Amino acid sequence: MRIAHVSDLHIAAFDGVPLRRFANKRVTGLVNLLTFRRNEYSLDIFERLVADLIDENYDHVVVTGDLSNLALESEFQAVFDRLKLLGGWRKVSVIPGNHDAYTSGAVRSRRFEATFYPFMFRQFSDLDVDVYPYVKLIDGVAILGVNSAIRTPPLFSWGRVGSKQLGRLIEALSSDRVRGAYKIVLLHHHLHEREMPEQLVANLRDQDAFLNVIKGHGVDLVLHGHDHVAHQSVLNTGKHRIQIIGNGSSTRQDPDPARVARYNVYTIEGGQMKNLETKVYDLRKRKFIWKF
Fold this sequence. Notes:
CATH architecture: 4-Layer Sandwich
Mean pLDDT: 91
Low-confidence stretches: none
Radius of gyration: 18 Å
Distance between the termini: 21 Å
Structural class: alpha/beta
CATH topology: Purple Acid Phosphatase, chain A, domain 2
Shape: globular
Number of domains: 1
Largest sheet: 6 strands, mixed
């Protein structure tokens, strides 16, 4: 099974959005977009990314959060309209990031789930109930989508899984149908230390509790986003090794080869990861190429 890992699209789409919709935390994000992040993330690269994913015909594509910039309906729809070209539940899995929970209104209305439910559930789910973690079992691989995205004050982007969701994650990992599978957990927030002030304002608040759960229940691989630089680490539990991999951003226009748009490809075979490859966006050729 070949799985493509995409993350941190940060798609902005403001057409038809009235100015009053920015009279909240979004004003901070809008100023950021118009100054420091101007032209940093590209819809054009996203469309080229989708085309490349279609050409490569991976068995599954996972997207580890921050699909939008400001959690607007227009942004979610722009992303959904392109991701659906890859297929539905069997082909794509998504989880929200902090930018997808940017305002209290977006969180309260379950805007992300209402848009992207075809990639999380086989059929429409009652969004008034707890939907995370959702579980997919495909060809001996269990994919568990965890939500660490919470509404935060301006200039902060920390996350939290929460004790209730951690309890449901334990139940899912302990179930008969998941226990014998190769277990992949999707999480938006990173699990490694970053330099200050990023570590202070953008960490996972209950990281230790989350790590205790995955160490005690046979998780094989954690895929995350949030930190826009690719990152890999290994967590040794004494019984097995958990690989933790952050993809970086898949739409970023940046001359820095460590930060330019990319996605990872994992080959899972016989209950193990047999191979990890990366495709990186070439700004001059305007296409994704294999990194060697």
